[in-house]
């Protein structure tokens, strides 16, 4: 199914405040119909690192803020371990509305992965955030985020931790000259086998330390 896309809802200005206000009424795809609200990015222009996840979850949808649920708490813990101050980063998602399903007769909302069409429809917001924030490094958390910027053929299992030039290697055109690295989404650490979670967390922290070292190089 094709969607009109977010392009026509973008304001002329790419000031973050203007983008946040405009995104509240985005109808670029059908996900707004069931979600509570648009969940835009959080952070400041000039942040050196921009983290991009897949989409808001249940708690993010209710709060209107990214990465405040269980995965967000894992993310904060990993940032602390890697000695990266979240206050100096910009955090967002490839898709700005929560996509979910419900089991028959249940109220609980269950995460449902956004389709490629929904990711592409929402991408103008992500590119506008790149313009507004102008980070030195973009860190894609999970395959969906990486494919939103680096193309649908990107495979996290093959390219995790590799450094890409978004202008040369990306799927968004030549106007975004910024380094991109991809790692796992912190939610994957919660879903993995309990006896392997400590190792998975340490590997995630190692990826984040690589980002910090790249900034210092």
TrEMBL record:
Keywords: 4Fe-4S, DNA damage, DNA repair, Hydrolase, Iron, Iron-sulfur, Metal-binding. Pfam families: UDG. PANTHER family: TYPE-4 URACIL-DNA GLYCOSYLASE (PTHR33693:SF9), TYPE-5 URACIL-DNA GLYCOSYLASE (PTHR33693). It comes from the Bacteria. The keyword Cytoplasm does not apply. Belongs to the uracil-DNA glycosylase (UDG) superfamily. Type 4 (UDGa) family. This is Type-4 uracil-DNA glycosylase. Residues 40-209 form the Uracil-DNA glycosylase-like domain. The keyword Secreted does not apply.
């Amino acid at each position: 199914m094709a969607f009109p896309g977010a392009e026509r809802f973008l304001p002329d200005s790419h000031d973050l405040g203007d983008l946040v206000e405009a995104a509240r009424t985005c109808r670029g795809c059908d996900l707004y119909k069931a979600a509570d609200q648009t969940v835009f990015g959080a952070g400041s222009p000039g942040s050196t690192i921009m983290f991009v996840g897949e989409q808001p979850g249940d708690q993010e949808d209710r709060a209107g803020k990214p990465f405040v649920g269980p995965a967000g708490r894992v993310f904060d813990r990993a940032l602390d371990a890697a000695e990266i101050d979240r206050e100096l980063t910009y955090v967002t998602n490839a898709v700005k509305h929560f996509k979910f399903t419900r089991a028959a007769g249940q109220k609980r909302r269950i995460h449902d992965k956004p389709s490629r069409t929904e990711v592409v429809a929402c991408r103008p917001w992500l590119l506008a955030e790149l313009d507004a924030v102008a980070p030195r490094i973009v860190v894609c958390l999970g395959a969906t985020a990486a494919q939103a910027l680096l193309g649908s053929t990107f495979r996290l299992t093959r390219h995790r931790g590799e450094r890409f030039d978004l202008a040369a290697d990306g799927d968004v055109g030549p106007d975004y000259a910024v380094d991109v690295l991809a790692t796992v989404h912190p939610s994957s650490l919660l879903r993995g086998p309990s006896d392997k979670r400590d190792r998975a967390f340490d590997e995630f922290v190692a990826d984040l330390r690589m980002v910090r070292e790249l900034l210092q190089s």
